[in-house]
Amino acid sequence: MKFTDILEEFTKLSQKRSSILKHVNDMEDEVTSISERIEELQDARPRNSDEIAKARDKRKRVRADISNRKHDVRLVEADIDALKMRFKWLVDYEVRDDEEG
Fold this sequence. Notes:
Layout: H1 3-44, H2 49-100
């Protein structure tokens, strides 16, 4: 793998990681909004148990999705680490090759 290929792959993985993290941040904002809505429903009309239950279910689903996306980030970070190791190997190999030749 050439240096330019590694750099291109690194850029692609970094962008993927950033995109997932942005999505996670957006979902965390959504959880906050849902929690605020639940509080409003409880304060205003305690009899809206259906709406409160729906909001709690949605918040639970969003939290599960956040957990999945954070797992995706860890996988991308593992790919980035592997790419860094390949780059180090490439640099070490080229240095060794230059010293021998």
